[in-house]
Amino acid sequence: MRTFMTKSRSSAMLVAGFLLSAFTAHALDADGWDIDALDTARQVNYLTRVEKDVILELNKVRTNPAKYAELYIKPRLAWFNGTGDGNGYKAPGQSGTIVTVEGPAAVQECIADLSTRESAQILVLREGLFKAARDHTRDTGAKGIVGHTGSDSSTISGRMNRYGQWGGTMGENISYGASDGREIVIQLLIDDNVPNRGHRTNNMDKSFGCMGVSIGSHTRYETMCVIDFAGQYISTNNTAEQQEEEKRVTARFEVRNDPDAKNWDIGKLDTAKDMSWLTGIEKDLMLELNKFRSDPQKYARLYLNPNHAAYRALLLASPVALLSLERGLCLASTDNNGGLGDRIKRYGVWRSGSVSSSAISGPYQNGREIVMDLLVSYSERVLDSGNKHIGFSVRFHNEYGLRCNFIFAATYTSNP
User: Fold this and answer.
1) Using CA atoms, how far apart are residues 45 and 51, in angstroms rounded to an integer?
2) Nearest of 213, 228, 229, 225 to residue 141 by alpha carbon
3) What 3 state SS string does the chain have?
4) According to the model, what pLDDT value does residue 23 have?
């Protein structure tokens, strides 16, 4: 059995978003899962039971990867029965033996990986993404096509854009032959015979916050499941209530029309306005950082309460040169693989001088609120004239609202 994937990261401006609330206390199921929090699509009337199960299983593994591996993936090691070269397995109640390529080695590797992974935010359903996934299921399933390109040459992005607008990142997983929600998710996590484990990467990607899923028949493999992911998504042609729910925090991700433009040389300070790979709130954040660096005293008088922790120090601070925003450092700020030095070198060249990282989280509504919180603990770092380059990312956090990661560097050149 083979699965296929494609993942695409957008250079498009983020156009919409959603806000996940913090976990609240609920009764737990027999395995200790907070089903009320994780079963985000159970009341939706246009999904089948198994499609809802896929979303639930994905949210289980995203919120506690190690637990999921221990409960549901580790037992599979006992299913391998020595058929052929030892790579065949037969689950309890299964009528036939499934022969894999990698055998139990892939299962063991998956368990080890999930056991050390951090949790990711809960996924919520978007009707437009469901419709995009359903289009591909109906089209390719009936024709026995395998892969992400439709019979009409449609692409993942194109299908998503039929029913709304996606922002940030997007991707698609497709499985063939499985018809149970847990089995679908586990097959994509193990990713037998997929060297880069791309399906697992999609399933666990922290930048994804919403999804759509469709399960249908396939003339070659009997069943298929298409899962479409996006960082953010606003569906069109929904009910007024659904549109309102998806749009209620859109302002958080749009570039703010600065009411204080009269106080600042926006043409000089808004250095990120044409960087289409940034989200709206990230462009806003860069503008606020440049305001602060160009005149910290004015910034304090205009925006900070005298009781703010940094207020008095800023009234004595001198202007410093504007920061250079580096895409390589922005990419490194979203990368959790390796230490800071390894991550920044992965996306560019750091020649000498200092490099440091900072992180803050909170229910921020715009770039200014982020900067004000950043100044509480890191004002000296933001005002350090030796820090000439910066990269950052603003991502959803399932408890605090937004998570903001920053990297400052004395020297840096992003890869082309």
Assistant:
1) 11
2) 225
3) CCCEEEEEECCCCCCCCCCCCCCCCCCCCCCCCCHHHHCCCCCCCCCCHHHHHHHHHHHHHHHCHHHHHHHHHHHHHHHECCCCCCCEECCCCCCCCEECCCCHHHHHHHHHHHHHCCCCCCCEECHHHHHHHHHHHHHHHHHCCCCCCCCCCCCHHHHHHCCEEEEEEEEEEEEECCCCHHHHHHHHHHCCCCCCCHHHHHHHCCCCCEEEEEEEEECCCEEEEEEEEEEEEEECCCCHHHHHHHHCCHHHHCCCCCCCHHHCCHHHHCCCCCCCCCCHHHHHHHHHHHHHHHCHHHHHHHHCCCCCCCHHHHCCCCCCCCCEECHHHHHHHCCCCCCHHHHHHHCEECCCCCEEEEEEEECCCCHHHHHHHHHHHHHHHHHCCCCCEEEEEEEEECCCEEEEEEEEECCCEECC
4) 28
Model pLDDT, residue 14: 24
Answer whether 119's CB lies under 8 Å from 34's CB. no
Kindly list the averaged pLDDT for each block of 10 residues, start to end, along the chain of length 416: 34 25 49 86 91 96 94 92 70 80 94 91 89 96 93 92 86 93 96 94 90 96 95 75 52 46 82 80 91 92 87 90 94 86 91 91 87 90 93 77 90 91
Q: Can you give the pTM of this predicted structure?
A: 0.57
Mean per-residue pLDDT over the chain, rounded: 83
As a whole number of angstroms, the distance between CA 223 and CA 217 comes to 4
- CA within 13 Å, CB half, 412: 30
The pLDDT tens digits of the residues spanning 287-314 come to 999 999 999 999 999 888 888 888 888 8
Exposure on the CB side of residue 168, measured as CA atoms within 13 A: 24
Q: Can you give the pLDDT at residue 91?
A: 80
What would the two tokens of residue 363 be? 């229910």
